[in-house]
């Protein structure tokens, strides 16, 4: 055991004295965490993640103004009122806005002629590179349009205008008498419903409120009574409030850990090849210790470095400025230890597969860097498209990211964490066994 | 002390060691000489347990095969390449290797060895700032941290200045006089002649000659040559009776200078292994 510890202490000392290696293991991950934290800053705060949208109101009516007001008040949109559609479109082209919403001049008239062949029309100019966000915006506009429609049914004057226009259109239509009579009955029913509702509201409200303007009355009515909404989409996430990332650093510190682990794997993975080329491996092998003790010493050094980099980032994350919260300290400790074992094994595999320093560094760059990148080192896993997420499951870094997210903002239970921990443990054991066999094969 | 019996080792189609047998005695300095590719490194690798012979046995007196980790506690190796950690100090290198051998009080032992190789003043300096000679001396010191009874020195003076070389050779003789067995490989024949009690000359994985330097010179060195100078002319006279030849030359009075060239180990080496270049 003393020999294993001596080798581990020696390797850690050498890494700490190699300024470049020490920088990439202990300092660079912090930069990554801070950099991506700033990039994603506000992702967990209220009001963040809003779609920037330009709004052009060409309508002069109350309905158009009400829709614009609703857009401006919506929590998922940052609406910028622009004076013309040209300016709005220019903003979209330049990437300033996801889309430009144009409320046309005919918006109010279209709504009033809903029963006379008219309808709601809103124009949307989108950035073709941001189709997903445009789709979300289209859904949002439908929701707001339905709200406008529901307010119409609560506005007696508007309803009267709508049924009058509907009857005029009905007379001009080519329907047979039976159909015309039935539809006329619908309009009469709507008129009676509107009159009864107005009387009921007048009795319930103060006189000043009963005299309120139709547009604002619609909004007030929506507050007092459930508005007519043909479709309600109640949006919720799979995570409760406790499980949402509270700050962007809860995501970026995980990325920092990934980069730290990657540096540990490449840094310590090359150390065996360095020992071989320097001749010190010969000396280690002639000492009265077994091959696996040499490898265990190296694995212990890598494990310690993995633990240090994880511990350092977790500790820094606890500072109030970063606000990274640990959902369960025992689970965090378990995940940290098993992640350390997994990546020590990965280091052993790299060390065993390469004979030269150049080979170790080449493989480190080619394979480990790619695995780290697709494993959440550059783009958080949940931002990745599904196909990349599927591919990323081959990367141990991906499982480490899942484990880190699990003991921070995802607040996993042990059962939920178990698959990630199982994979990391398997990587550790397989890496050590294969690395040892490769080293023995190379020596013989 | 070390018995190599009928060792054979091949790498693919190359027969590196071919039926080699040696008995190395306690307290002697044993020279293992041979051109490149003669099988010296393979023999050393089998002697320290790094390589398993295809055939034959390696045995350390009283402790068994060096393949056994416990037996290796009695072995010390100073490899030809400077097997040191450049970013550690001289003391740290020695302390680290002391710990691998579970040497008690490693810092004290480190100080003793630094004194022995004349590096006490540089104990705390990192090895990367050392000269070639200093590194060679430290390389030798590392081989001695655990007080081994058998030390294998592979080209211990390669690329060092005359002062360091003299110091290393003196240390080798001190080790032998202290009862340590030393296996010494070198390409410098004068060194081997100076420090080795016995020498084996290897080629093609076999022992070509074995004995003390004097025995080898007598057996394979040829006759003494008397070189007679007459003005600008020079005559070389091989003879078994150099004094008789010299007396005759002096009587004739024609000689302006006379010297004797004795056969040496280099001559033996070249006569046994040939003059063709080895890569």
Describe, in plain words, how this protein is organized in 3D.
- Chain A is mainly alpha-helical and 444 residues long.
- Chain A folds into 2 domains: 2-42 and 244-443, no CATH class; 51-241, no CATH class.
- Helices cover 69% and strands 5% of the residues of chain A.
- Chain A has 18 helices and 4 strands.
- Chain A has helices at 2-17, 19-39, 62-73, 85-93, 107-112, 131-153, 156-172, 177-204, 207-210, 214-224, 249-278, 280-286, 291-317, 329-353, 357-377, 386-392, 396-407, 414-443, and strands spanning 51-57, 77-81, 99-103, 123-126.
- Chain A has a 4-stranded mixed beta sheet, sandwiched between helices.
- In chain A, helix 1 (2-17) crosses helix 13 and helix 6 packs across helix 10.
- The radius of gyration of chain A is 33 Å and the shape is elongated.
- Chain B has 279 residues and is α/β, with parallel strands linked by helices.
- Chain B has 2 domains: 2-213, P-loop containing nucleotide triphosphate hydrolases (Rossmann fold); 223-262.
- Chain B contains 9 helices and 12 strands.
- Chain B has a 6-stranded mixed beta sheet, sandwiched between helices.
- In chain B, strand 1 (2-11) and strand 2 (14-24) form a beta hairpin.
- The two termini of chain B are 32 Å apart.
- The mean pLDDT of chain B is 88.
- The A-B interface holds A 2-3, 6-7, 10, 13-14, 17-18, 278-280, 282-290, 443-444 and B 48-52, 69-73, 75, 77, 79-85, 87-88, 92, 96-97, 99-102, 142.
Oligomer: heterodimer
Biggest interface pair, counts: A-B, 23 and 29 residues
CATH topology of the largest domain in chain B: Rossmann fold
Which parts of chain B are unreliable, with pLDDT below 50 for 5 consecutive residues or more? none
N-to-C SSE string of chain B, H for helix and E for strand: EEEHEEHHHEHEHEEHEEHEH
**Class computed from helices, strands and strand pairing of chain B:** alpha/beta
Find the count of extended strands of chain B (DSSP E, 2+ residues): 12
How far the N terminus sits from the C terminus of chain A, by CA atoms, comes to: 25 Å
